[in-house]
Amino acid sequence: ATCGHGCKYGECLGPNKCKCFPGFTGKTCNQDLNECGLKPRPCEHRCMNTHGSYKCYCLNGYMLMPDGTCASSRTCAMVNCQYGCEEVKGQVQCLCPSGGLQLGPNGRTCIDIDECSAGNAVCPYNRRCVNTFGSYFCKCQLGYELKYASGRYDCVDVNECVANTHRCNLHAECLNTEGSFQCKCKQGYRGTGFDCA
Question: Main localisation, per the record (predicted)?
Answer without folding.
Answer: secreted
